[in-house]
Each structure stands twice: as C-alpha cells, then as structure tokens.
Amino acid sequence: MRPINRQARASSQFKLSKRSNQLILQIYTIIHTLLSLIAIFTGLIVVFGMLAGNRLNGWTKWFLFTAVATTITGFFFPFHGFTPGIGLGIISLPFLALTIFARYPKQLAGAWRWIYVIGAVICLYFNLFVAVVQSFEKIPALHAMAPTQTESPFKLTQLSVLALSIVFAIVAVIRFRPEPVRVT
After folding, report:
1. Which residues have CB under 8 Å from 70's CB, separation 6+?
2. CA–CA dist 41, 43 (Å, integer)
3. Tens digits of per-residue pLDDT, 21-56?
4. What are the residue boundaries of the structural domains of the chain, listed by start?
5. Between these two residues, 32 and 178, which has the higher pLDDT value?
6. What b/e string do you get for 126-165 counting C-beta neighbours within 10 Å, with b at 16 or more?
7. From residue 160, how far is each of 149, 150, 153, 163 by CA, in Å?
C-alpha cells in the first residue's frame, strides 16, 4: 500500500480550488458583460424611443432592470481597494433610483418627465463610458492606440460619447411628451 502524501493532496486540492474560482470568476464576468451589453442595447432603444416621443414600456423595464443588475454585479468582483469602477457604480445607483422613481411611482408627471429623461440618458452614458474603457483595455487594436487611456484616441472617443449623450438628453427632454397613462 502506498503512503498518502498529505502535502501533495493539499496542493492538488488548492490548485483545483484555484481553477474552480477562476472558472467561476470567468462565468461571472461573462454574465456581468452580457448584462452590460443588454443594458446598452436596450438603453439605446429607449433613448431613441424618447427622441421619437415614444414611451416603449417593455424596453424601458429591460433597460432599467439590466442597468441596475450590471451596476450591482460590478460591486462583487474581487477588488482590492477603491477602484474607478466602484466609484462609478456608487455614482450610478442614485441616478438609477431617481430614474426608476420618476418613471414608475411618479409616472412622468410634471417635472418627473424631464428628470426621467435626463436620468435615463445619464444611466446609458455611464454604461457607454465603461464600454469605451473596456474596449480600449481588451481590444488589441484600440489598446495599441491608447495603452494608458491618456492618449488622444481614448479621450476623443470618451468626449464624443459624452457630447452625443448631452445632445440626446436635450433633444429627448424637448421631444419626449408621452400621453398620460389613462386609468379605465
């Protein structure tokens, strides 16, 4: 009978545990990324709907749900210390709460209409901001153009996203005048 090498077994279990944790983190990252992409996609549809004066109730629910989900899931990555992502998540949550409050309990009445519009565009902008950061980190061609994200291509892209978001917010505030919900 062969003697059991406890140290070898413990080392093997540690390696298996480490691989399992890496796999779980990869799956979690994929879920978080998918939620982010869905939030961006549905957010764009909602904003373009507002530009056309349409309420788009179903799309709005998906946008707000996935925007909240992606923000919350962002807090559960294994970070050490305070990061810009955590800071943006902390800033994003009150905007999401105010946007949801304006849309549902206040039903876009009075000033809550423009609060909702601006809040929705800001929430979309935050997701687009992170998408640009991640794109310049993960896509080799973009990373080569701005490896430290202090270079002109990165700054110009972020400035363009911000400028478009501001224009969308202004135009949506002007055009989004949905019919009040009628109780029958």
Report:
1. 32, 35, 36, 39, 127
2. 5
3. 999 999 999 999 999 999 999 999 999 999 999 999
4. 10-175
5. 32
6. bbbbbbbbeebeeeeebeeebeebeeeebeebbeebeeeb
7. 15, 15, 10, 5
Residue 137, token pair as written in the block: 């980190």
In the numeric block, which tokens belong to residue 32?
Answer: 């978080």
Tokens of 42: 């549905």
Q: What share of the chain is helix, strand, coil (3-state, %, to 5)?
A: 75, 0, 25
Contact (Cβ atoms closer than 8 angstroms) between residue 39 and residue 67: yes
* Distance (Å, whole) CA 161 – CA 157: 6
pLDDT in tens, 129-145: 999 999 999 999 999 99
Q: What is the Cα–Cα distance from 124 to 13, expressed in whole angstroms?
A: 43
The answer for residues whose C-beta is within 8 angstroms of residue 35's C-beta and 6 or more apart is 66, 69, 70, 73
13 token code pair = 């279990």
Q: How far is CA 140 from CA 30, 67, 71, 177, in A?
A: 19, 27, 26, 43
